[in-house]
Design brief:
This protein has one domain. The relative contact order is 0.15. It is mainly α and 290 residues long. Helix 1 packs antiparallel against helix 3. It has a two-stranded antiparallel ribbon. Strands 3-6 form a two-stranded parallel sheet. Strands 4-5 form a two-stranded antiparallel ribbon. The chain is built from nine helices and six strands.
Length: 290
């Protein structure tokens, strides 16, 4: 969300597109929270009262899929199954209420800018983690084809595997999270490359600043604002009712898998460089037209 107001994307997409993309992401985040929060609230009270309260989930418009999963978890305490089921639920919920929404199809998903963003693989999910270095290391995965329900579910499974099948990484992520304030700015984890205050002069023509995630000598850091200064609060309309769960075949995603990899440093650096090159190419085309 803060990237939409940062040094890079503001040079590629219009203010209207920035707002449309933000509302798309904001709606998705809000929907996930209002769906998952009552689930964990019921779990909390089930523990406190020492009895299963998940029969109340349908009254909170939670899918029958998750009601079944929570009942199973209450008896078996299968953490992996619950986590992956939550991923499946979240992504199917988004598919129904956001991805297939006509308004978002028109204003975001079918726009040239979004298709370019998807094509160039700019969708990195990153976890900073601390080992011994002062600068945190990065681990994560890249989402290809954002509009694909299958790809989003598989991304969730890969991220779970990266975090919970590598104890050193999990502890490193927790150490970083506990020691650092979370503002939404990329400067939170890489202050050598990003800054939450704009250091470049207004109206300055953009030129390459980075190489392999290091600033070139004398160049200002990339502006990455804090969320509270980038966007205001949004009042949401209630979600439409209706259960997404109609196809039992989604249970195949519950099969436990372990994924290798997770080293995203090089891809992330290349992405920043791609964006910089795209900015300069756009500027060159614009000047040529003039």
């Amino acid at each position: 969300m803060t990237d939409l107001k940062g040094d890079l994307l503001t040079r590629l997409i219009s203010e209207k597109e920035q707002k449309n993309y933000f509302l798309f992401l904001e709606r998705g985040n809000w929907l996930i929270f209002q769906d998952v929060f009552p689930q964990f609230l019921l779990y909390h009270h089930s523990l406190r009262m020492k009895r299963n309260l998940f029969y109340l989930l349908p009254y909170l418009n939670v899918s029958t899929f998750m009601e079944t999963i929570w009942n199973h978890y209450w008896e078996n305490r299968n953490y992996y199954l619950l986590a992956i089921a939550t991923v499946i639920n979240e992504q199917n919920y988004l598919e129904k209420h956001v991805i297939q929404n006509h308004h978002f199809q028109k204003t975001v998903l079918n726009t040239i800018g979004f298709k370019l963003y998807d094509f160039l693989r700019f969708n990195h999910i990153i976890f900073p983690y601390v080992e011994n270095e002062t600068k945190p290391a990065l681990i994560g995965a890249t989402l290809q084809h954002f509009a694909s329900l299958h790809e989003r579910i598989m991304l969730g499974k890969r991220l779970y595997s990266l975090l919970f099948h590598q104890e050193n990484v999990l502890q490193g992520v927790l150490r970083w999270a506990k020691k650092n304030k979370h503002t939404g700015s990329r400067a939170d984890y890489w202050g050598h490359l990003f800054h939450h205050v704009k250091e470049s002069l207004p109206g300055t023509i953009y030129k390459r600043r980075t190489k392999k995630c290091e600033l070139k000598k004398g160049e200002p850091r990339i502006y990455s604002p804090q969320l509270k200064f980038a966007w205001g609060n949004i009042k949401h309309e209630d979600a439409d009712s209706g259960d997404w769960f109609h196809d039992w075949k989604v249970i195949h995603y519950l099969k436990e898998e372990t994924f290798s990899g997770g080293d995203i440093y090089e891809d992330y650096c290349k992405t920043i460089e791609k964006i910089e090159l795209t900015i300069m190419a756009k500027k060159a085309i614009f000047l040529r037209k003039e």
